[in-house]
Amino acid sequence: LANTHNIANYPGVAGHVGGDALLKVMREQAISFEANYQRAQVFGIDVQGPLKKVYTPEGTFVSRALVLATGAMGRTSSIKGESEFLGRGVSYCATCDGAFYRDREVAVVGLNQEAVEEAQFLTKFASTVHWLTAKAPQDGDAHVRSLLSQSNVKHWNSTRLLAVEGDTSGVTGIKMKTKGEADLSTLAVEGVFVYQSGSKPITDFTGDAIELKDDGGVKVDETMATNIDGVWAIGDIRNTPYKQAVVAAGDGCIAAMSIDRFLNHRKLIKPDWDHS
Question: Where is the FAD/NAD(P)-binding domain (predicted)?
Answer without folding.
Answer: 37-252
